Amino acid sequence: MRVTRRYRFVASHRLHSAAFSEDQNRELYGKCSNPYGHGHDYVLDVTAVGPVNTSSGQAVHLATLDRLVSEQVLKDFDHRYFNADIGEFQTLVPTSENIIRVIEDRLNARWREAFPGQWPRLERIRLRETKRNVFELKS
Amino acid sequence: MLISRRAEFSASHVCAQKTLSAEQNAELYGPAANPSGHGHNYVLEVTLEGEPDPATGMVFDLKKLKEVIQQNVIDPMDHRFLNYEVPPFDRIVPTAENLAVEIWRRLEPHFAEKHARLNNIRLYETEDLYVDYAGPAAEGGQPCG
């Protein structure tokens, strides 16, 4: 059974790498490289997979998943500027590709503590930056 | 090829086990355990898998699929209190997971002998929560209950 839970956060970012010149950044990232950054209403879908517990009827204890995502991701990301406020992005460009990997790392870091035992497992993370840009990672 | 049909029904439920205390049920199910129940606009997506029939160009007649969903899921569940009116939810907790399994059980025989077979049940309880069930054969581990 797969259970997918949707979360939302709003944050700003600037796509700009110190490894490139101003012109190269402009060429590579376009308006996403504008100096003061810009923001998105991110939509985060987290999918966990596991067998249905025959007593509870649940494959995932939702309050536990909500708490994990809130503490590991939303608490730090919501209403923040990735480049200035979030440690990982001092060295990483906050593209959605990198954001989704950081989310995976942060969830995995506490997953087994939150869900002791074999199940459920983190299966997929989907991040919607805008309605037209969606990123997906199979964990 | 996969084809999917969407259907909707509205129903109420309460998620609680009779053998547990009110506190234990609240810990397990949150506000979904409130004893008088609450409701959702469920959205069901039924996905079939098969090859298009060379003559008709169809994997399965979508009109028939609509009827099968209507008769086996929507008619018995729409505008009902699942725990009181829709077996087996008088005995098992009507979580989204259990609902998806029951919907699979009700629909699967209708495709068993056709060239299209049931591939997936996706059930949205809300816009922010859905489950996917691909049938007993696709379930990985053993039940942990």
Biggest sheet strand line-up of chain B: 3-1-2-4-5
Q: Uncertain regions of chain B: pLDDT < 50 for 5+ in a row? A: 141-145
Question: What is the average per-residue confidence, as pLDDT of chain A, rounded to a whole number?
Answer: 97
Question: Given the helix and strand composition of chain A, which structural class is it?
Answer: alpha+beta
Helix content, binned percent of chain B: 25-40%
- Distance between the first and last residues' Cα of chain A: 16 Å
Work out the radius of gyration of chain A.
17 Å
User: What order do the helices and strands of chain B follow?
Assistant: EHEHEHHEE
Radius of gyration of chain B: 17 Å
Structural write-up:
The complex is a heterodimer of chains A (139) and B (145). Chain A is built from four helices and five strands. Chain A is an alpha+beta fold and 139 residues long. In chain A, a hairpin with a 2-residue loop joins strand 4 and strand 5. Chain B is built from four helices and five strands. With 145 residues, chain B is α+β, with helices and mostly antiparallel strands. The termini of chain B are far apart. In chain B, a hairpin with a 2-residue loop joins strand 4 (117-126) and strand 5. Strand 1 (2-13) of chain A pairs antiparallel with strand 5 (129-133) of chain B, so a sheet runs across the interface.
Question: Key features?
Answer:
heterodimer; A: alpha+beta; five-stranded mixed sheet; B: 145 residues; alpha+beta; 28% helix; 28% strand; disordered C terminus
Q: Gist?
A:
The complex is a heterodimer of chains A (139) and B (145). Chain A has helices spanning 22-29, 62-77, 82-85, 96-114; strands at residues 2-13, 38-49, 80-81, 121-130, 133-138.
